[in-house]
Amino acid sequence: MKHIVHFVAATSLLLVAGLVEASGNPSRGQELSSQVCASCHGVDGAMALAEEYPILAGQHRDYLVMALKAYRSGARDHAVMSSFARNLSDQDIDDLAVWFSRQDGLGELTFD
Amino acid sequence: MPIRLLALLALTLAPAMPAIAQSGDPERGEVISFTCSGCHGIPFYKNVYPSYSVPRIAGQSEGYIIAALKAYRSGARTHATMQAQANTLTDQDIADIAAYFVSLAEESE
Fold this sequence. Notes:
Chain A has a domain at 25-101: Orthogonal Bundle (Cytochrome Bc1 Complex, Chain D, domain 2), CATH 1.10.760.10. Helix content of chain A is 61%, strand content 0%. Chain A has helices at 2-22, 26-36, 38-41, 61-73, 79-85, 90-101. By secondary structure, chain B is mainly alpha-helical. In chain B, helix 2 crosses helix 6 (91-107), helix 4 (62-74) packs across helix 5 and helix 4 (62-74) packs antiparallel against helix 6 (91-107). Chain B is globular and about 55 Å long. Chain B has a two-stranded antiparallel sheet. Chain B has helices spanning 2-13, 26-32, 37-40, 62-74, 80-86, 91-107, and strands at 46-47, 52-53. Chain B has one domain (20-107): Cytochrome Bc1 Complex, Chain D, domain 2. The A-B interface holds A 48, 50-55, 58-63, 65-67, 70, 75-78, 105-112 and B 18, 20, 30, 36-37, 40-41, 43-44, 50-64, 66-68, 71, 76-78, 101, 104-105, 108.
């Protein structure tokens, strides 16, 4: 019985790991971030160079994917971000999003 | 002449200055931000069509919250719900909401 529990636990972990991996490679995201994003957002996305720049660290992965694609398509109009996003592939965006989403930073807002 | 030059400079730069200098009132922000909690106060709440997680705001920079709300208001960012919300907000409302969110995040630290 104990073996079965271990087996199921291990298989589930592998499955979850596989799913996460399939939607982005964090180490490639880190590398890409250091080249493209770091000068404004910090490599881990936890710094904002200017007051109006966002913190990216800890943001939801799927939200980051949506936002980057919106900058790329022009649905979000922002001179600086659009020019960077235009050069990103879907894979680049997935890798960056999973990297930033795993860094310590933003959290859930708890309203009083 | 230098005074004229200064005045000209001030006139040129004034519109470019970010509205961040405008200080927000967190207490007023709390009153007008009650509608925000319907989506941003629920952990892992999903946007539908297309489906993605509503962004996390706790710990976000005050200036970015202001810039994002103004972008929804101007249409530089499109999102039906966020535009509908932002369209009702004045610059002061936006500053107050941002100040309130920052105060909430500081409380929970």
